[in-house]
Design goal:
The structure holds two protein chains of two kinds. Chain A is built from eleven helices and two strands. Chain A is 72% helix and 3% strand. Chain A has a two-stranded antiparallel sheet. In chain B, the strands form three sheets. Chain B has a six-stranded mixed β-sheet with strand order 6-7-8-3-9-10, sandwiched between helices. A four-stranded antiparallel β-sheet of chain B has the order 2-1-4-5, with helices on one face. Chain B is globular. The chains are: A mainly alpha, B alpha/beta.
Chain lengths: 296, 270
Amino acid sequence: MSETLLFALELTISGLLVGLMYSLVALGFVLIYKASGVFNFAQGDMTFLAALALASFVVKIPLWISLIVVLAIMLILAMAVERIVLKPLVARPPLVLFMATIGVAFFLQGLAQGIWGTQPRGLELGLADQTYDVAGMFISNMDILGAVVAGILLIALVWFFQKTKTGRALRAVSDDHEAALAVGIPLRKAWGITWAIAGIVAIVAGALWGSRVGVQASLALLALKALPVLIIGGIDSIPGAILGGLIIGAAENLAEGLIGPAVGGGIKNFFPYLLALIVLAVRPYGLFGREIIERV
Amino acid sequence: MTQGAKPPLLRVNNIEVIYEHVILVLKGVSLEVPERGIVSLLGANGAGKSTTLKAISNLLHAERGEVTKGTIEFAGMRIDRMHPAQVVKQGVVQVMEGRRVFEHLTVEDNLLCGAYTRNDKKVRGDLNVVYRYFRRLEQRRQAKAGYISGGEQQMLAIGRALMSKPKIMLLDEPSMGLAPLLVEEIFNIIRSLNDQENVTVLLAEQNAAMALDFAQYAYVMENGRVVLDGEAAVISDNEDVREFYLGLTEIGKKSYRDVKHYKRRKRWLA
């Protein structure tokens, strides 16, 4: 195998592995958007909150107990958001709900930093960073762990939405709130469940990303990386979020590695958005987004 | 109402509905539906038919409306303060205007969603009951509901409601936007559901001729009030109903050119 090809393959693989973790963040958005038609601006901050809580607990108590505690926090949070924010705003236009999630985002960030301080922290998951040499390519064990965990979660979610009664009901809610209500699906319960799932996704994303890049407020900005993923994959498609993340991860890595040196680098930061713009022009609802069914 | 000594299955008692805290939509509506009966609610656009049905199903909250006065009783129990899901569980299900199927779900998934409130094991078997009444749905069970025809969607909406094992079905304009032959077909199926599955029917319709032909008893609504009620046969003979809802006069069908609205007033408004 020639040098360049091997290099490209290595870039692609590590890109795909990181990409799965982008998928994870994007998935949090997709879930809430699907179930309630709301773009949840707070997803990034939920991720930050989960990561910060985990980082502060894990130094005192074992990892698995910390995870349970953080899980409890996120579930309580989901219920609180449903009760305090969503319930009074039921049947309001989506923009109103979007604004409300911006409020939730800043509140969460303030809350997290109020409790645990603004100092950046490291998050040790008890795994030493190692790099393996696979057929001449260097692959990090953190990347693999992240990809495996993200992959398992994604499969579990797809199964949940496609095969279970509750999952089916959530899909019905995302299609038509009122009709779902009319057949006896409790809307508030559905929303509560959705936010709880988004909270779980935030924990996993927060743990994985936090252990890679450290836990600090800028972790919330990871959410921005999810935007091009959502645009490429389609904001209401779970498979779209997965593939969108993979595409972004691989594409930005390849662009940086192959085109980067020729133009002085720094491509990685804007390349996903460029890709998103192109997709927007060709397929406005994303590659896998749900097309609007219109009867003629 | 003189339909025997048995108490009615559904009793709406002088309800008032207000939207957005200010707009008075229903101004004291009362009606009764006897067990296993078919009752029609007639009226023009905006008369308050849909609002009445949504008040019964308690779906008004989603449109920022609420029942501010009066009571709604189903089988002797008050349901006006119940959550919509509980109302469905009691056996009151609504088939909303405009079909409202879950477009991105398959036909079968739509039907299964209809059984959400049930926890028994017979749900799968009841799919076949629905398919027996709506043969076309069986052929399209794996199709996305958004892509089936309008008539099939209406059948799906009714079938989905049937999956909750309702005692009473509230049908809101099932004839809307459908070809007359299809309307006939759907009404015939509803009639056999009434007959064989013991489903009581409350039907809101603009298609007065169809609705009067179909029901035993009818209420006429205007401006958020019930202005007339009686046996369907009697209502069909009412002069005002004949002229304003059925387009008939003593001398038979009248040309629209000759209609002078200001000439004759409805007597019930006088």
